[in-house]
Design a protein that fits this description.
Length: about 210
């Protein structure tokens, strides 16, 4: 599949790029996408939540009333989970939510997400560019020319560019990522996927390993 290449002024150039059908033209696998996104979100969790069980709550272990003869339900000490201020039954404890996912599944998920973006005509290719200085205003001008100011966008660049990263950092709905680090979640979360021309080869090299 061929896509036109635009410059940062919003004008179409005479150049085009060929998207590899074995990446951008596959039949998307929804289950692979689900697993990869689930793993990505699980890895974001700190897992530092904690509650106190009855053996950790401060209080006396004296039995509050005798077992029988009161007409009321039997009860233990003041730290019982059924009492206010008592311990939590089956409460949360710190844990690691991350889990393993095979590389082939992750690769298939990213291919599937890219294929969905192609079907939705949500991919834009820009000529290679850089900024002489990290100016947010310059990045906003690019977004404005392609009507992406109020929409989530993900710019994929081939290598780390400090000025581009800093220029986009203060824009809430704009993200920049490296071609080698692109994730299924980021692809699907963006309304517009913007590739710098040379980053397409980097993505293809990453996903065709």
């Amino acid at each position: 599949m061929e896509l036109a290449v635009y410059n940062i002024d919003g004008n179409k150039t005479a150049k085009t790029v060929d998207l590899n059908d074995s990446i951008f033209g596959i039949e998307p696998n929804d289950h692979a996408i689900y697993l990869d996104v689930k793993q990505y979100l699980a890895n974001q969790r700190q897992g530092t939540h904690a509650t106190k069980q009855r053996n950790e709550v401060k209080g006396s272990t004296r039995k509050l009333r005798r077992q029988k003869g009161t007409g009321a339900a039997r009860i233990g000490d003041i730290k019982s989970p059924i009492l206010r201020g008592g311990g939590r039954a089956f409460g949360k404890k710190p844990r690691d939510y991350s889990f393993k996912l095979n590389k082939k599944v992750k690769r298939l998920a990213r291919k599937s997400a890219l294929a969905y973006k192609v079907k939705d005509n949500s991919i834009l290719v820009l000529e290679d560019f850089t900024f002489e200085e990290p100016k947010t205003k310059k990045y906003l001008e690019i977004l404005e020319k392609f009507n992406m100011l109020d929409k989530k966008s993900l710019l994929v660049i081939p290598a780390a560019d400090r000025n581009i990263f800093l220029a986009s950092r203060n824009i809430p709905k704009a993200r920049v990522t490296l071609a080698s680090d692109i994730s299924t979640y980021e692809i699907l979360n963006a309304q517009h996927l913007v590739f710098v021309e040379s980053s397409i080869k980097e993505v293809e090299n990453t996903l065709l390993k």
